[in-house]
Predict the 3D structure of the following.
Amino acid sequence: MNWLITGGCGFLGTSLIKKLVDQGKNNIRIIDNLSVGTENDLGLVCKFQKKSASEITKVYSSSEVELVIGNILDDELALKVTEGADIIVHFAANTGVGPSVQSPRIDMETNVIGVFNYLEAARTHSIKRFIFASSGAPVGEVDPPIHEELPPHPVSPYGASKLAGEGYCSSYNKTFNLDTVILRFGNVYGPGSLHKSSVVAKFILQAINKETLEIFGDGGQTRDFIYVDDLIDAVLLASKIESIGGEIFQIASNNETTVNEIANLIRETLKNYGLSGVKISNSNKRLGDVMRNYSDTRKAESILGWSSKVKLTTGIKKTVEYFLK
């Protein structure tokens, strides 16, 4: 297939591209503004060729990954880079509660207009499938586990912008018969997450730099941590299973872990690599954070045939090894 991946230089993008390249018979084009991921990150997983908008054609290269540097808010560029694609995977986003609280307008513009531009491009070019990377944030503060039928009540601007993206995916499925698939990711971690500001990457970097691990609030808040390889397997399944247009799937581990537990697990794991004496401190709770969050993944298991396989202790060990290297 011809794959168009937005945010392809980021953590999830490079992880997916590595799998696609290993499979063979996939032609890949990336659009990325390099605000988080870099060309070096992409170069670690594939050979690629930079192309300007004027050099792009609807014929995808079969020998190298194509990288177009640009912004997903550019609607004309969206139409240009998506022509010829069989599938769009929309990873590009303003991610995380914190950045959305600091800059709600940037969060809205990136996460709402960005997804709209690529849905409209998919409609214009009759692209077969559109996979949207969402999260549990649209649901808001509820008694977990989170499942697909819960009414959404987002707490943070990030949750609101992702909910808007889900709404546009639903409308383009119902109105234009576009095969949109919404994947609500848990807290993803793993090798390749050097530039992520999520809790696992942040804690490991703080520990390696001999800084105190900072926990917002009392650390009793819970999250559902999913290893990146498991998540990418879900994306690949969602790309090829028929008759799932318009569906939402929770993609997570179905396990509830407190932030205190993940901090202590990282601290204990680091001891095995000679990094001891890691300290933990608490600061004020962040605005927009929910207290409890984990997912019911039975729908993904029954329809996609997917479930998470990597245990948290194994995944943290592999992630620590990646950061130490």
In short: DSSP finds eleven helices and 14 strands in the chain. The chain has a mean pLDDT of 96. The longest helix spans residues 104-124.
